From TrEMBL:
The keyword Transmembrane helix is assigned to this record: no
Keywords in alphabetical order: Metal-binding, Molybdenum, Oxidoreductase
Domain (Oxidoreductase molybdopterin-binding) ranges: 7-152
A GO BP annotation: sulfur compound metabolic process
The protein's required cofactors: Mo-molybdopterin
GO molecular function terms listed in the Swiss-Prot or TrEMBL record: heme binding; molybdenum ion binding; molybdopterin cofactor binding; sulfite oxidase activity
Organism: mine drainage metagenome
InterPro entries membership: Ig_E-set (IPR014756), MoCF_OxRdtse_dimer (IPR005066), Mopterin_OxRdtase_euk (IPR008335), OxRdtase_Mopterin-bd_dom (IPR000572), OxRdtase_Mopterin-bd_sf (IPR036374), Sulfite_DH_SoxC (IPR030835)
Domain Moybdenum cofactor oxidoreductase dimerisation: 174-290
Name of the protein described by the UniProt record: Sulfite dehydrogenase SoxC (COOH terminal)
Length: 307
């Protein structure tokens, strides 16, 4: 159902899945990342492998209808609406505030398909919202209601949960954009280099603000950087694969990747993040990840004092 506060919607409507599937669809690739991805690493090294440090993120092809099309169909006052609330039919009635600026961009989708098939039950069947670039909790599954308003809706998981604890004890709210981030996936924690020689260092980069522009890789803990090759096509708010050859000489090394997006945002170090956010936060950790390659070839998760 699409509804709203007084005078914001001329014709509130209830849409069936069939109604939406008869509209002109679009298909786009986007990542979805949990706001708590990499959460356990804020204070110190906590987990061993990339699946644990960065595993709460994925990238899929989504098929559906831009939400703005439904609002147009309902006669919504697009100039008067400043926020929408999306609500799911799950047990917790998950609901989130979405700025109207994102909806007006045409990026926000009411989705019924994923990777060439209908949504699976665990992914929100029959309908879900996809809001590219923002934390996963805003990608409402089992979508049942869209409400239009003029101010944030202050739902439970945006004023009490999914808030950023600052060093002075205050809680920062409505910080849903997932900032530029990258990680080397191979070699990475738990893997072993069997012998000296050439290795393809590869990984993933993504940003909630747009396309990835560049990824640099360091083999000495951030002292020197080399630009990696991005594998095309590089898409908006989606995974970008990077590769760079590296000759391992059998000595210890510290592998890092640093992404830059099209807005100029540069992935920060842990040191830079902690100066602003402290060490007790949970959400939105996009710090540079370090993998130590030992002389034995074993790779493990570490954090360096200067990064």
């Amino acid at each position: 159902m699409v509804m709203g506060e007084k005078d914001l919607v001329k014709n509130p409507k209830v849409y069936s899945v069939g109604d939406i599937m008869r509209m002109q669809p679009v298909s786009r690739f986007h990542f979805i990342e949990c706001g708590a991805n990499s959460a356990m690493e804020w204070g110190n090294v906590a987990v061993p492998t990339v699946q644990y440090t960065h595993g709460m993120v994925s990238c899929s092809e989504f098929t559906g209808v831009p939400l703005i099309k439904l609002l147009d169909d309902c006669g919504a006052d697009l100039k008067g609406v400043r926020f929408i609330m999306a609500e799911g039919a799950d047990g917790s009635h998950e609901n989130r505030t979405i700025p109207m600026s994102l909806v007006m961009s045409g990026e926000v989708l009411v989705v019924y398909g994923q990777n060439g098939e209908m949504l699976r039950p665990e992914n929100g069947y029959p309908l879900r919202l996809v809001v590219p670039g923002v934390e996963g909790v805003s990608q409402i599954k089992y979508l049942r209601r869209i409400k239009l308003g003029t101010s944030p809706f202050a739902t439970k998981d945006e004023v009490l949960g999914y808030v950023d604890l600052m060093p002075d004890g205050r809680l920062r709210q409505y910080t849903s954009v997932m900032e530029v981030k990258s990680v080397v996936t191979s070699p990475s924690g738990g893997q072993v280099l069997m012998d000296r020689g050439v290795y393809n260092v590869t990984g993933l980069a993504w940003s909630g603000r747009g396309k990835i522009k560049r990824v640099d890789v360091s083999f000495d803990g951030g002292v020197n950087w080399k630009e990696a090759r991005l594998e095309g096509p590089v898409q908006n708010k989606a995974f970008a694969r990077f590769n760079i050859p590296w000759v391992w000489n059998g000595k210890g090394a510290f592998l890092q990747s640093r992404a830059v997006d099209e807005t100029g945002m540069v992935q920060p170090t842990f040191q830079e993040m902690r100066k602003i956010r402290g060490t007790r936060s949970v959400y939105h950790n996009n710090s540079i990840q370090t993998w130590q390659v030992e002389e034995t070839g074993d790779v493990r998760n570490v954090q360096l004092a200067n990064s």
